């Protein structure tokens, strides 16, 4: 995946949130690149309205991903650092000190103070081969209504035993 980028309207938060969501990510695209390996889900996707609905497992997975991204974003914007930190993968938690993370999220909460609805949302879900077997991963892009400068590009998420977790650290 390409590296992610976070842009905020406040310079101090831009640096802080970049620590949260801007590190990690490689240059390789996930999946084998074969047709049908990736599923992209946009803001207006309604699987029940498509003439060819998404397979049940794909529809469920993308719904769970969107819910995880929404809950993480709400926690970040309201300053709930403990909940936001819980959405990091175990690997990211070993790389990002919790105390530092909590301070950064507290500052974000002071700036935004409330959840913001998505203005845009798009997720590309694919399968990546790992030593432990196939792993479902996603690159998620989203913006918020009411916060023009708050942008997430190619934020990396991984479907773990605990559900979708942010793996962009």
Features:
30% strand, 169 residues, disordered N terminus, alpha+beta
Principal-axis shape = globular
Strand portion: 25-35%
When the domains are counted, the total is 1
Largest sheet: 6 strands, antiparallel
User: CA-to-CA gap between the ends?
Assistant: 13 Å
Please give the number of β-strands.
6
Pattern of helices and strands: EHEHHHHEEEE
| Alpha-beta classification | alpha+beta
Radius of gyration using CA atoms only: 16 Å
Q: Treating each run of at least 4 consecutive H or I residues as one helix, how many helices? A: 5
Low-pLDDT segments:
1-51
Q: Kindly state the percentage of residues in helix.
A: 25-40%
Average pLDDT figure? 76
Describe this structure in words.
This protein has 169 residues and is an alpha+beta fold. It has one domain (5-48, 58-166). The protein is built from five helices and six strands, in the order βαβααααββββ. Strands 1, 2, 3, 4, 5 and 6 form a six-stranded antiparallel beta sheet that branches. Strand 3 and strand 4 (133-144) form a beta hairpin.
């Amino acid at each position: 995946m390409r590296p992610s980028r976070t842009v905020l309207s406040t310079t101090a938060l831009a640096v802080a949130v970049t620590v949260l969501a801007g590190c990690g990510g490689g240059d390789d695209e996930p999946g084998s690149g074969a047709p049908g390996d990736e599923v992209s889900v946009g803001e207006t996707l309604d699987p029940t309205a498509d003439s060819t609905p998404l397979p049940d497992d794909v529809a469920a997975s993308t719904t769970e991903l969107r819910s995880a991204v929404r809950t993480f974003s709400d926690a970040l914007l309201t300053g709930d650092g403990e909940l936001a930190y819980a959405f990091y993968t175990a690997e990211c938690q070993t790389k990002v000190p919790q105390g530092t993370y909590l301070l950064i999220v507290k500052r974000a909460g002071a700036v935004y103070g409330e959840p913001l609805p998505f203005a845009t949302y798009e997720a590309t879900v694919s399968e990546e081969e790992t030593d432990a077997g196939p792993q479902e991963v996603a690159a998620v892009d989203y913006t918020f209504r009411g916060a023009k400068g708050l942008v997430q590009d190619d934020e990396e998420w991984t479907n773990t035993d605990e559900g979708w977790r942010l793996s962009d650290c």
